[in-house]
Task: inverse folding
DNA sequence: CGTCTGATTGAGGCTACTCAAACGCGGTGG
DNA sequence: CCACCGCGTTTGAGTAGCCTCAATCAGACG
């Protein structure tokens, strides 16, 4: 373990902090986070990070790569709840509610910062700024899910796809995963389909339609937004004002 | 205002605490909450409690009555995100993210405890237990939305209705709003329809079908679960283990 | 008794679903 | 080098669940 510690990303040099998307830390907060972080975990594409109902003692921050949160009905129908990108906190429900009702799976090879969930209490006790950050992230996530619920509940297939594409692009862009209106898509049409609540077949047809109308392209795992305005109109989407997010 | 203060519910005598659903408070926490609470608000059925984009300086706890959270697309299609019952925190996103992306509207005449949102920081600074409670509530709400998203994304009309009925019943029961497998339904079919992501017409047909098959009844604004097991099977629903919730 | 809101029912149509087959492509092994 | 996977994508054909439009009904209220 000491060995792996040497290869560990130092919080003071956290690559996420270089990007100008996180609020500034106080020194003592950073010192604490460094102690709070008990290690780093590599999970390869397709593997489970946190399993529903499975109580691990850890929570994670996604440092590198993509993941997704999902639940299923008993008969196997799967809902993708949201995608996770660097900076996202995974397993907060486990720490706070002591229960996970969804699974988190890696889409790409990922790197995770590992924290002991039983130390979350000491965060609240001694580092109110960090505690606030955690709450910020929880609220933010809820806001995103609210958006998806609106989408799945009331948009048609084309609108849903347009919305999701813009959503993914914009989130990828914030963490430096998009350049030039395009980003690497580490998911399959089946993932999109389960996120949108549309069958794979119909998802495919919808994708083809929007592509043929030059709204976007998807070649070699790379998605490019070609007609942002058109997609925004389709989806009635408004880009969030970028707010500096906290990081833990 | 001094006048209304006299009619205010005392936190020490908070009726919600009488019901054995909230975690115990420490005395000093209770003292603080008493100070934190700046007043009480009555909102009548149908009125807006918090308006999307509208930055009020307050957040609320629902003390009495029903409310619902909702957003809409530009063309008016409305998604009911969730229903709120006593003990639920309203406006946390406002306090934490400084932005509300949904509206909260009263379904019945409601009583709300009013808190200054700019004091939320002092909660985090000085009352970690309460801060944790707020985060607990945020996480819990997210968990509920996740459940709805699964429902709207992957259940058919009958399954969605079954799920929502059980969900509402169980939540109502926890706060003492249900007796004998039945509860007062302060909403219309249109509300359900917007929550389920199904048109009012089809919602009506689905309701009639499930009623005619004796799954439940809905007479004089009162919903009664007649065949709980049947509904659970339909919806693949599992009742949550009751956990003591925090209260703020 | 007229009006309003919400619930209900009918008829017809379209979106999205199901079933099924074929295609493209990277990987593997003979 | 090529045949043979296996996974993900694509396309076709027929169907059904849910939608739209529209009218009627029931109850509350002034």
Result:
């Amino acid at each position: 373990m000491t060995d792996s510690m040497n290869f560990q990303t130092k919080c003071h040099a956290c690559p996420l902090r270089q990007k100008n998307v996180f609020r500034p830390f106080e020194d003592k907060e950073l010192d604490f986070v460094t102690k709070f972080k008990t290690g780093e975990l590599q999970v390869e594409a397709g593997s489970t990070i946190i399993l529903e109902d499975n109580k691990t003692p850890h929570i994670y921050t996604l440092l590198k790569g993509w993941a997704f949160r999902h639940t299923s009905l008993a008969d196997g129908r799967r809902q993708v709840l949201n995608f996770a990108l660097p900076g996202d906190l995974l397993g907060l429900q486990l720490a706070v509610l002591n229960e996970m009702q969804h699974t988190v799976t890696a889409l790409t090879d990922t790197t995770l910062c590992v924290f002991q969930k039983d130390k979350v209490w000491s965060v609240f006790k001694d580092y109110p700024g960090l505690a606030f950050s955690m709450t910020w992230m929880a609220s933010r996530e809820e806001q995103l899910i609210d958006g998806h619920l609106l989408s799945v509940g009331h948009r048609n297939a084309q609108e849903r796809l347009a919305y999701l594409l813009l959503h993914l692009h914009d989130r990828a862009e914030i963490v430096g995963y998009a350049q030039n209106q395009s980003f690497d898509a580490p998911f399959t049409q089946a993932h999109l389909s389960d996120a949108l609540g549309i069958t794979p077949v119909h998802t495919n047809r919808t994708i083809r339609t929007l592509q043929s109308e030059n709204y976007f392209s998807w070649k070699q795992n790379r998605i490019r937004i070609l007609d942002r305005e058109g997609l925004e109109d389709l989806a009635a989407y408004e880009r969030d004002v970028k707010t500096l997010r906290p990081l833990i």
